[in-house]
Amino acid sequence: MTRREWLAMIGAAPLVRAAVAEDLPSTPAAPVSITRCASYDEDVTAAMATLFDQMGGLDGLVRNKTVTIKVNMTGSPGVRLNGLAPAMTHYVHPKVLGATAYLMDRAGARRIRFAESPWATTVPLEEVMLDSGWNVRSLQSASPAVEFANTNFIGKNKTYARFTVPGAAYMYPAYDLNRAYDETDVFVSLAKLKNHATCGVTLSLKNCFGCLPASVYGDDSGVDEPNENPGSGRAAVGHDGKRQPSKSAPQELHFGENHDPGYRVPHIVADLAAARPIHLAIIDGVQSVAGGEGPWISGLRVVQPGVLMAGLNPVCTDAAAAAVMGYNPRATRGTAPFQTCDNTLLLAEAHGVGTTDLKRIEIRGLSIEKALYRYDG
After folding, report:
1. Please, which residues have CB within 8 angstroms of residue 156's CB and are 6 or more apart in sequence?
2. In terms of pLDDT, which residue wins out, 57 or 26?
3. 217 part of a folded domain
4. pLDDT score recorded for residue 377
5. Between these two residues, 207 and 15, which has the higher pLDDT value?
6. What does DSSP say about strands 280-285 and 307-311: parallel, antiparallel, or unpaired?
7. Nearest-angstrom CA–CA distance, 281 and 184
8. Helix, strand, coil percentages for the chain (3-state, nearest 5)
């Protein structure tokens, strides 16, 4: 990418539902930190410490706080690309998670909870991690405050937490989630730097689609009440709009009007970003995959961008991450990587979550030009 091409990309301003920064001058902007980490064999903790130091440190964010970290472990741990461990392809790497917990503990976090809604199961999250080849004891040793939560169902709670979308919601007026996402002071989205077949990219925003419990939003969720032993994904409710979630939860606003996953999933993700704000976005771009979000996507290939990223605003962080991948974060539908879908980043920007305008986003540490790794070759 030449400097001229770079300037043209960051200056592009497609008009999408008033989601342009010029139309939303009050849309928040926050710095994004980028650092180099060539492989997981390096000192990942040191790299993460550099990343957080560039942001101004973690103390003010986590001291004496409960922190919930939404981990990206999409798909079954048994489904692998070329026999590789999921963390070397489409899952976040446990070293990144462990380093984050260790540094948060040192910064004074009172409680650190790892949360995920793993594919089609309600077994303890630790078991899913073990099946994925993770060293759970190592994660536990990162901090005495570490806990684990499978948020695919109600768990040990008596009720779900309801998160209302402020203003005009796109898909649902509110979302019912496991209380792990409510009983917390700081919510962190720890994502992987990769493409997505339905959303173009899956970064800190799209990672939170996995907050939806299959007990309520799954293919086999109960009609009236949640199915607390779900054994499916969320395609029928979330992707295809073939059915409503359990009636115990708020129902889709315009059910039956749209069955396009490329419309539905980005709009749900943008709703969630407004309803359950992300306080810290972390993106693992050390080693990942291009061409999709997991081994079930044909043509998937391993890539090694060798970067770690973090920011206090998920839209700003994802905008910088998309640029690192070689994309215009303000691209409209029909333009890579959003060829068949709406741009989640612009939809979240229209909700007032953050800006996609790279000219308003301060990049700390490694520049986007130096971190650039073209996912489309």
Report:
1. none
2. 57
3. yes
4. 72
5. 207
6. antiparallel
7. 16
8. 30, 15, 55
Alpha-helical segments (H) within 63-114: 94-106
The CA-CA-CA angle for residues 35, 325, 321, to 5°, reads: 55
Q: In angstroms, rounded to a whole number, what is the distance separating the alpha carbons of residues 258 and 239? A: 10
Helix (H/G/I), strand (E/B), else coil: 100: helix
**Domain containing residue 169:** 3-371
pLDDT at 21: 39
Nearest to 71 by CA among 113, 18, 17: 113
Compute the half-sphere exposure of residue 245: CA atoms within 13 Å on the CB side of its CA.
Answer: 25
Quote the tokens at residue 183: 């009983």
User: What is the DSSP code string of 37-52?
Assistant: ---TTS-HHHHHHHHH
Q: How do residues 296-314 score in pLDDT, each as one tens digit?
A: 999 999 999 999 999 999 9
Give the predicted TM-score (pTM) of the model: 0.94
Confidence (pLDDT) at 271: 98
> What is the residue type of 309?
M
8 DSSP 8-state letter: H
In a domain, 376, yes or no: no
pLDDT of residue 327 exceeding 70, the answer is yes
Q: Are 211 and 203 in contact (CB under 8 A)?
A: no
> pLDDT tens digits for 132-149?
999 999 999 999 999 999
Q: Is residue 32 part of a domain?
A: yes
Residue 339 one-letter amino acid: Q
CA 236 to chain centre: 21
Report the DSSP pairing between strands 194-196 and 200-202. Answer: antiparallel
Q: How many domains does the chain have?
A: 1
CA distance 41 to 59: 27
| Residue 103: how many other CB atoms lie within 10 Å | 21
Q: Would residue 95 count as lying in a domain?
A: yes
C-alpha distances in Å from residue 113, one per residue of 50, 87, 102, 202, 274: 23, 19, 12, 22, 22
E-strand stretches of 243-298? 280-285, 288-290
